Amino acid sequence: MLNSVTDDFRQHLRSLLPDAAFRELTDAYLKEPRGRYAAGDGFLVAPDSVDQVSRIMRACSNGRVSVVPYGGGTGLVGGQIASKNVTPVILSLERMTRIRDISPIDNVAVVEAGAILQSVQEAAQDADRLFPLSLASEGSARIGGLLATNAGGVNTLRYGNARDLCLGLEVVLADGTIVNGLSRLRKNNTGYDLRHLMIGAEGSLGIITAASLKLFPQPAGSATAMMVVKDPQAALGLLALAGSRLGGQISAFELISRVGLDFLAEVGPDIKTPFAETPEWMVLLDVGTFAGVDPETALEDLFVKASEDGMVSDGVIAQSEGQRAEFWAIRESIPEANRRIGSVSSHDISVPIARIPDFIDEAPGRLAMIGQFRINCFGHMGDGNLHYNVFPMPGKSREDHQSDRAEIKRVVHDLTHEMEGSISAEHGIGRLKVDDLITYGDPGKLAAMRLIKDALDPLGILNPGAVLAQPDH
Amino acid sequence: MLNSVTDDFRQHLRSLLPDAAFRELTDAYLKEPRGRYAAGDGFLVAPDSVDQVSRIMRACSNGRVSVVPYGGGTGLVGGQIASKNVTPVILSLERMTRIRDISPIDNVAVVEAGAILQSVQEAAQDADRLFPLSLASEGSARIGGLLATNAGGVNTLRYGNARDLCLGLEVVLADGTIVNGLSRLRKNNTGYDLRHLMIGAEGSLGIITAASLKLFPQPAGSATAMMVVKDPQAALGLLALAGSRLGGQISAFELISRVGLDFLAEVGPDIKTPFAETPEWMVLLDVGTFAGVDPETALEDLFVKASEDGMVSDGVIAQSEGQRAEFWAIRESIPEANRRIGSVSSHDISVPIARIPDFIDEAPGRLAMIGQFRINCFGHMGDGNLHYNVFPMPGKSREDHQSDRAEIKRVVHDLTHEMEGSISAEHGIGRLKVDDLITYGDPGKLAAMRLIKDALDPLGILNPGAVLAQPDH
């Protein structure tokens, strides 16, 4: 049984930490961005060092008090919001924002968990390097949370997920033990990889306090194109062609459907494609090239070859930085248009890349058994990651389909599972998908996860109810 | 307390598995390639399916019998060789060699743990894809062992270690539980990452039975060069220059010292560099380029720029496949020359890349306090990974320095540790470095490792004595 924070416990923490560690609890710490999760109460503590984090964890462990780690608060699955029936310590990393070191020769940045992604990107750029993790919330998401949820984003096709960008971690375990694993090494085979165990564990196995991150040379040139494809199958062909011609120079390959573009026209933001007619399907392509490769020429050559092969029917290569930004604004505005329309149910799924066309063919028929919907399917096709969102027909609202939501989710997740896909491609499990993980997860994996959780957090104080259901004890 | 295999237990296993699973135990299963480890006895079992592996593990778990997993037997740290005082089950994956699937669209191969690396490379090539893991023992090393030890090799600079090439694993846990994690997905955030926990655990947490592996487009062109550099500092400058100009197209950057070339001249194999004078330091560079980049021109341009900057004094670009093979033969023959000379002590270390010149400057002075030695320092500079091997002077032998060995190792490892390096960059811990891991490992990490080991293998039957010391119980 976990204990709520009591007055005595508050007093005890105050005696362990400097005054600056205590901040006013605002609503932001208790509600997630979409308002779907809200906590009852919490005791906000913002330590300034790994040693202070260790002291907090030791105290919480001794007092059997639960701890909810808090980064930028941008998570979409409720991982940062405690359940209503306890008052946990909300451990915010917001004061641990230092960029401890940037080494362009090692291609490594060592940063604290509270550093905001954008500031890490900027620090890398100042050292003539690239930190490629990039996503819509980069102005507020913090490194610790990005690693704890193994964030994805738009550059994963080339550079991988957050996991792939991390060389080492400094972590505090449930009992306050500090694991110093801030390695800068590219090769290090000395025992179990705790780093990867903590990444994606969503704060349920330990508190990430700092990370060493991989940096990359900045591409010599870059360019962006939009290409119209007949259907997802043609997009898949284009992806393979681009891969064989440009290899690791492709940094984004985003699929966009007509529905998303119609949504933009219907509710804004007011952004249009460069095409005279709204295409049924289009692809947004980004390349970052090496010395000797002209990025525009590379995209042009790709377009010519793809046209010859009948994969693309129209295409535009951005002619300026301004136009590149416009192209990307289309992609980045679709989530906002989605919010304005109001989805009945949205899904962050992935399937093996080769199955994407099958999935997009098959799902609408199954959903039609439930009712009439508009489907906005878009996302990181190069990674097999689709945001498959189901909307009401014009004139209907999200509320009209309240009773359909569970069934829609089941249909989308069942099909994903049949196609050996994932019910959470990049957002994680949090509290939202704990039951889905039980339904669709491999039983052997779940058993092993429970053993690991119980071993590293025997009292169950770390982010209880996230990833794994809280046992009744 | 673990039990040795008894006649009754043999009988029991024979009742659970088909006859074909039982093979004659030869010396190969009891001795590692360099003859430094030898087991007393063992009971060889070669299952043909994950289900059979599960049955074996369940039986061993019930009987508290230890299990040593066996792949290609090429490991260099004794991880595949049981200690003398027990008779374990030697669980060989040699019959699970199927390549279950190759999907060029997904860029995925699903292979069984017993598949030999070279056969996986060839299967990928037949599908016009590249599986980039490559190392000297690729003709006999098996995928399961390569993943269990997170093997490195010559292409890690570009493609990462074995860990980075794996999308998912099928694993059998100590109690026989099957974890089916053969994901083909590039993005999948559904719970703890057991895959990365098993990779590098050297069979001490579970038996890898199959893996889904990343494939890559084959480079459009490739080329190889040798460049003479003044010293390791100049090599570091060349590495950074190559990185900024060619980015992810560089697949190998190997540092070779004069000592290694002298060894080749002294004891063979009879292979010479293309340079009139034996250089003090040289670099072997491999590039695999994308469409539109001529690989020879890319290397030429790099050489010209590096010459202007004073980094390189001479260089040759291979003019044929035959010459490329000759260049690589120099690098690949150095370990054989080393064996013929007979090292006093050899070390597989890594340091942050920026520290390599310091390390190479500092170590000889410290070793000179012990005695007079020849040092052959070579390796994967692009990964920060040096094979730092200490040899007797001419006229002396390995045996003459028997009493110096421990001290040499201590000096090299201490310096590595001071420079925040790793005492095992790519070979793993096995049984050879268990004590070193205790000495140099982070105490917090070791504590967490022990908790995980005890949780997943509470009886301690999985590869006992590898990675972590066997507890007395």
From TrEMBL, chains A, B:
Belongs to the FAD-binding oxidoreductase/transferase type 4 family. One of its GO terms (biological process) is respiratory electron transport chain. The lineage of its organism: Bacteria, Pseudomonadati, Pseudomonadota, Alphaproteobacteria, Rhodobacterales. GO terms for molecular function: catalytic activity; FAD binding. PROSITE patterns: FAD_PCMH (PS51387). This is D-2-hydroxyacid dehydrogenase. Keywords: FAD, Flavoprotein. Transmembrane segments: none annotated. Coiled coil: none annotated. It comes from Litoreibacter roseus.
